[in-house]
Amino acid sequence: MTTIGGETRLRLFPITVTASADRYLVTRRDTGTMLQTSESGVDSIQFLRRGLTIDRTRARLDRWMRRLVDIDGLEHLDRAQAEQRGVILCGFHLAGYSVIPFALASRGYAQLVLMAATADSTREIRARINELREAGFPYPIEPVAAPGSTRRIVRGLNAGAVVVLLADPTPGGPGGCISAPFLGGSLRLPRGVAWLARRASAVVLPVGIQSTAPGRYRLQISSPIGAADRCTERTMIEMLATRLEREVLDRPAAWLKWQDLHLMAGNSGQERPGGSS
Hints:
Elements: E1 2-4, E2 7-9, E3 15-19, E4 23-28, E5 34-39, H1 41-48, H2 58-68, E6 69-72, H3 74-82, E7 87-91, H4 99-106, E8 111-115, H5 119-134, E9 141-145, H6 150-158, E10 162-166, E11 177-182, E12 185-190, H7 192-200, E13 203-213, E14 216-221, H8 233-250, H9 261-264
């Protein structure tokens, strides 16, 4: 990846990303066609300043989640829970993603939230949840640090738990990756989501969130992707990559992983053999 001024050229993708203070412009280099232009707006700025959740008062946070965050698609989650199935709510690094577990918890949905965060960040989230509980807001969220959490997550899914995780971290952890078509190139995504789904016969529900007005959000839970007992890991990861690509083309400035895209570019030589299962 090379950067010229505010322009980022991604060698393995037929696109150029031009960034300014308030917008991204994604252009196909082979045709010069603009894919999308979008203002980054308040969402990503608020998130980077930790204003979405951590900095709000307890009562204000609860009031905001209940009144100003709408949720569509809860029937998919309710159906899976009625069948006593474990559920993986699979999101992406799109601006506002930190709202997802709090919005669901405000409606009483218990969750294990898989976090690839620093120890300090994890402690901060746990402290925040404890503050909410002590203030009379029993948010049923259990943050789980990603390193060494596999057994805890699998046990939870086998017991019918809801696990919230993000499918597009920068590769580098254990477990291997799978390359999937993305923006005219290919993207390496960790195979962990698919592995967990198959190991625990869990339901995978894509989940996203976007701003609908200043201070208002809409959380969308989509229908299940891939049956864990019939879908290969590769097929499931490719489905997730297709979903991510659609989200990125619709709101490119909302994706918080542009700076890592060169690290996520597909390279079959870096996949583990299990990635093709």
